[in-house]
Specification:
Chains A, B: One of its GO terms (cellular component) is aminoacyl-tRNA synthetase multienzyme complex. The structure is a homodimer. By secondary structure, chain A is of the alpha+beta class. Chain A is 36% helix and 24% strand. In chain A, strands 3, 7, 8, 9, 10, 11, 12, 15, 21, 22, 23 and 24 form a twelve-stranded mixed β-sheet that branches.
């Protein structure tokens, strides 16, 4: 039971700013700036990843050779035993991602990329529906741009990947592999925005990726969609920031079956360049919080820094009001860690690259033709109905091996067809989310309309069931607290603590230092009634949610 | 009539390897290696672009301010007067792209990006239909990888963008911003491919982009789709390479209305790592050739260099057979330069982000409501029918200005609706490809089924008409030659020369030196009959096409 493949890059995607900012957090510190867009942070002590090349071909070779002789689930560490090892085993065995040759980078393999494509497809439609256009910004920016930003936020530059040699020559001005887009966005906005008639200017890009550099030792690259908008008024920008977090909420609930809690970040956790940061927070299987998407109201902070002006209706020059918002491939990790179990991945049907796998079963050669014919026609029926279906007709593996393999890959439904099923014109259908015999139903008719309706109903049922299960898990692990003592108990039990909060930034940092938990958000949904701050005993307007996080 | 915005980056996308390799071409020279995938080359002397930042905000500001007071077409240099200036004016005025802050890079603006998205959508479907999966490879590779490749091809490294500083520290090993993917692809293939059962391994990615570095002075970045496959046999790889060039041919004819000539590259023009390079060659409006897409049969050259092995059915270890193929954003430039005219852009309906623009016309306020109501309902009808339609209801501009603007943007059809049209329940429809009154039809009924059918027919007609026109232009500019003298005359007249060819590489290079023309391809479609080499008088098996190229 060896978890032989370790993917530091993916794990890093789930570290939080907290670790790096245990002490001395100030609103304008570079650490907080790094949080811009989505608060992707990486825990330095987890792995010694860095800007260096690594060779692991032979290790991977061993892994694969071992894998060939095993039932796939054998190589997955039980989730309850070691959550992190389980997570990395799932990624390796389900072939979601692999190491890149540069330590800290990852190759996203077809199965993982297909999940990302499902996310893109949904969001791309939503972004366009809400008036955003896609465009492309180049990824090299002049070093002077960062210095401009650094005049606001000291110490940003130590994090960057710098191109110093181009065309065989030392460059006169170093280039930066753009870590975030504010500088170039504002550079272009100053040229494109002239009058209020040019506003709002809204763009998004669901197909681009970013190089994200990490302080000190590490670079990490991931894919994301990133949106930037400019508006004539604060109110419009605020509405935009809220609209986009709403889209993320709907995406999380409806597509990913992840019952995120949405809210506003505390002042300490808000990006220094933003007036407000909205977030969706998800509870992973180990009950740690994952910040799964953010939307920022940037106010005029960037437009003042870069001189992004427009002429209003009265002929006055004004700074534009901006927003930005992003979801990245870390969301794929969130799906794994929300729904997965000891068997492996469990995918919500609406995001699954394969929704139904058909496993034909035969012993004798004379059975094979009839079984495969029936299996193919079942496949055709489902495909025509718009269901993503795969027929695993290889004769390299036993049906039992295939059952395990596709369960490990998280395919929501399995259809089994054997000689007796062919005779009776029916199939056996098993649900991934209900293990063993309980999830298995015999004698479903192959008649197209019956089968199609049955499969669609089951997929809907699984989608709802995953959400309900995650919701129940989440709610049973959130404790209402009214004192710091109660908060400490809840956090020490690995739970989320929800309680009224109106204390100082210093108190917030003290909680982090003493418990490891941070304010994940002030949730939009607030309980009724009088609230007394759990820390100070003063009146409070809102409850906050505290939790340890990735 | 000042073409005030110049986009070196886009123009560079249309330079050819020829310029850099006028003398001393050897099959294994680094210059030819750079041709790998798609032969994107950049003419150094065109612009003094380099790895440096530039500031042009004020220039652009002037341009925009000037633009506001003009009819859009006024700022476009006539195509016949200066093709290059015309091209750059169209890109600037149709808002397809803009300068990036680093010289030689470009921002692809929403209108240009939407065309690229249409290309992606089509190809993504075709790639998946033919069994390819998308995946993502990280863009930093260790410098040692390039050295490995450089052992085959000297001098590759002078072209690269090198990251030498990461996280504020000098890196132990420099990282390369990956210019092509062969090294990392083979690095991963050696880990993923074990037996013949793992083959074919086929991936494509229509959503990624690449940094392409240019020798000496320049970096250029563009978006592309890139495919890589590995196979068990040469025959399979050859079929794959041909299948993919076939997809590119169909794409060019059916979507882009560009009548490319497809064929095989000469030995001199074939990428040194490839056994065969297939290409599609398009004739631009100035009659220069544009290499618009390539597909390579790589044989075992890369698998031998990287040790990419598999175990065949007999238990023998064998090197895999590989292909690669790509189309990039240069194709967008090809569309502009094939169909555009003095008015500006002209887009084939199947790729146009906006297929129909509706311009409402009113003078008095009491007319406005009725006209806009009718225009909105026409828009709804067409949108429901799946047509990409835009209603330009702004009251900032006159209808005449809008006519010019949308013609300049290349929208295939314009619908005009005025008060009298509202009364008569009809609209006026103008074709972009037939200027003036000739292209204008009055009294088309607003009745949904009539209007929808009429618009769809016209769009189909325009699509065919653009292809026919380009085909006629192409064919009237290809001259059959039977001697070198005839070839020289044809080339000096700016035409393409087609003639039998079985001469040496040295002769081919001599033609290039003396005429500036290269062999674009040995076309798949060959004339019947006996062929005598135009250069040597010896028997020839094929005709070749010679032309000057971008």
């Amino acid at each position: 039971m060896v978890a032989s493949l370790r993917l530091p890059s993916v794990a890093h995607l789930f570290s939080s700013p907290s670790t790096a900012t245990i002490t001395g957090v100030s609103r304008r510190s570079p650490t907080i700036l790094r949080c811009f867009h989505h608060g992707l942070f990486f825990r330095p002590q987890l792995f010694a990843a860095g800007f260096s090349a690594q060779s692991m071909a032979s290790e991977t070779q061993d892994r694969v050779d071992n894998l060939k002789n095993r039932v796939p689930t054998e190589v997955i560490t039980p989730r309850s035993q070691d959550f992190n090892a389980w997570y990395l085993d799932v990624i390796a065995n389900a072939e979601l991602a692999d190491y890149g040759p540069v330590r800290g980078t990852m190759v996203i393999r077809p199965y993982g990329y297909a999940i990302w494509e499902s996310i893109q497809e949904y969001l791309n439609v939503k972004f366009k529906e809400t008036g955003h256009s896609n465009m492309y910004f180049p990824q090299f920016i002049p070093y002077s741009f960062i210095e401009k930003e650094a005049s606001h936020v000291e110490g940003f530059s130590p994090e960057l990947a710098l191109v110093t040699i181009g065309g065989g020559k030392e460059l006169e001005e170093k280039l930066v592999v753009r870590p975030t887009s504010e500088t170039i966005v504002n550079h272009m906005f100053t040229q494109w925005i002239h009058s209020y008639r040019d506003l709002p200017l809204m763009w998004a890009n669901v197909t681009r990726w970013e190089m994200r550099t990490k302080p000190f030792v590490r670079t990490l690259e991931f894919l994301w969609q990133e949106g930037h908008t400019a508006h004539a008024t604060l109110e419009e920008a605020e509405n935009e920031a809220r609209q986009m977090i709403d889209i993320y909420i709907r995406f999380a609930y409806e597509l990913a079956a992840i019952p995120v809690i949405a809210g506003r970040k505390s002042k300490v956790e808000t990006f220094a360049g933003a007036c407000k940061t909205y977030t969706i927070e998800a509870m992973m299987g180990d009950r740690k919080a994952l910040q799964a998407g953010t939307s920022h109201n940037l106010g005029q902070n960037f437009s003042r820094a870069f001189g992004t002006l427009f002429t209003d209706e009265n002929g006055q020059r004004q700074h534009v009001w901006q927003t930005s918002w992003a979801i990245s491939t870390r969301f794929v990790g969130g799906i794994i860690m929300t729904h997965g179990d000891d068997i492996g991945l469990m995918l919500p049907p609406k995001l699954a690259p394969t929704q139904v796998v058909i496993v034909p079963i035969w012993k004798k050669d004379d059975e094979k033709v009839a079984v495969l014919t029936a299996a193919s026609s079942v496949k055709a029926v489902l495909q025509t109905a718009g269901i993503k279906v795969k027929l695993d007709d290889s004769d390299q593996r036993t049906p039992g091996w295939k059952f395990n393999f596709w369960e490990m890959k998280g395919v929501p439904l399995r259809i089994e067809i054997g000689p007796r099923d062919v005779s009776s014109g029916s199939v056996v259908i098993s649900r991934r989310d209900v293990p063993g015999k309980q999830g298995k139903v015999f004698g479903i008719s192959m008649e197209p309309s019956v089968l199609e309706a049955y499969v669609k109903d089951r997929l809907d049922e699984i989608q709802s069931s995953l959400l309900e299960r995650a919701l129940a898990f989440r709610d049973s692990n959130i404790v209402d607290v009214s004192s710091y003592e109660e908060l400490k108990v809840a956090i020490s039990e690995g739970k989320w603590a929800r309680g009224p909060w109106s204390a100082s930034d210093e108190d917030e940092i003290k909680v982090k230092e003493e418990t490891g938990a941070t304010i994940r958000c002030f949730p939009f949904e607030q309980p009724e009634g009088v609230k007394i701050c759990l820390m100070t005993g003063n009146p409070a307007e809102e409850v906050a949610i505290f939790a340890k996080s990735y």
